[in-house]
Amino acid sequence: MVGGLRSWPTLGRVTTPEADESQAPRPEERLERAVRAAEQALIEYEIAVETFRVEVENFSRLHDQRLGPLYARIEELDAQIAEAKAARTGDPEDLRRAEEARARVLPMPGVEELLHGWMDGDGLFPEAAAMLTDQAVRPPERVRPSEEARKLYRELARKAHPDLAQEAAEQQRREEFLIRVNAAYARGDEALLRELAEEWAAGPVPPERRPSAAEELYARLEWLAQRKELLTLVARELEDGAIAGMLRLAPDDPDGLLEEIAGRLRADIAQRETELAGTQAQG
């Protein structure tokens, strides 16, 4: 995006004495336009990356809430099967495998946070147990910003973006304001986004930045290029993640994809329960 803005055609010169000097373009005029275009393009890119990050985060939360208990149940059954086999054979290798399987089930620090409240040190919470037994369960908490929330977020991000400010104090004010905007958008809080829009509209209008030296403008373009490279790395990391891969499989129906996976996991659970019953009967 930015790298292509460094090649500029030679500016025309006034060749007749009659020409009005006020019509001659300033040497930095085209460079200034390039910087403004690069700034706007970077802002749009940042909005796209942040929007995608929120989508991945929300889907990741829903994935853990719906499928986490099923994966935990499978690990528990694997441990019980290994323990039943070890108890029946007494073989040292079977005993070692049983210990390893049980170790994978034991709660680790932070597991409650990882499973978003579906499991604690004593095992599954009532909501998780209810889901595994096909009983009624409260729907998982989810955040999906409305179209109006997305519109408000994009407008605020464009108006208040720190890249549009030159003074350090104004950049800091904008950064702090956008932190609040991002937090409200991540929660899908449309009402708060409206309040923030009113707050910004009532605030001081920052002075327009007009670079005066070509060197400063080139430095600005370089910074914008570096910023875009950083965002590209963030976007690539998101896209290469397992959650984003799942989203690509069913972009129009992620809930249906989760339900399909849950169905397969329930079938695996039923198979393991049958295997466990058979192993215990042999003992």
Name the overall outline: elongated
Number of strands: 2
Kindly report the spatial arrangement of strands forming the biggest sheet.
1-2
Largest sheet: 2 strands, antiparallel
Oligomer: single chain
Distance between the termini: 68 Å
> What is the H/E string?
HHHEEHHHHHHH
pLDDT < 50 runs, ≥5 residues = 1-21, 108-124
Report on this model:
69% of the residues lie in helices and 1% in strands. It has a two-stranded antiparallel ribbon. It is elongated and about 90 Å long. Helix 1 packs across helix 2, helix 1 packs parallel to helix 8 and helix 6 packs antiparallel against helix 7. Strand 1 and strand 2 form a beta hairpin. The protein is mainly α and 283 residues long.
Q: Which key terms come to mind for this protein?
A:
283 residues; mainly alpha; 69% helix; elongated; disordered N terminus
Question: How is this fold's topology laid out?
Answer:
Layout: H1 29-89, H2 92-105, H3 111-114, E1 119-120, E2 123-124, H4 126-132, H5 147-160, H6 168-186, H7 190-202, H8 214-240, H9 242-249, H10 254-282
Antiparallel strand pairs: 1-2
Helix pairs in contact: 1-2, 1-5, 1-8, 1-10, 5-6, 5-7, 6-7
Short description:
The longest helix is centred in the first third of the chain and has 61 residues, at 29-89. The chain has helices at residues 29-89, 92-105, 111-114, 126-132, 147-160, 168-186, 190-202, 214-240, 242-249, 254-282; strands spanning 119-120, 123-124.
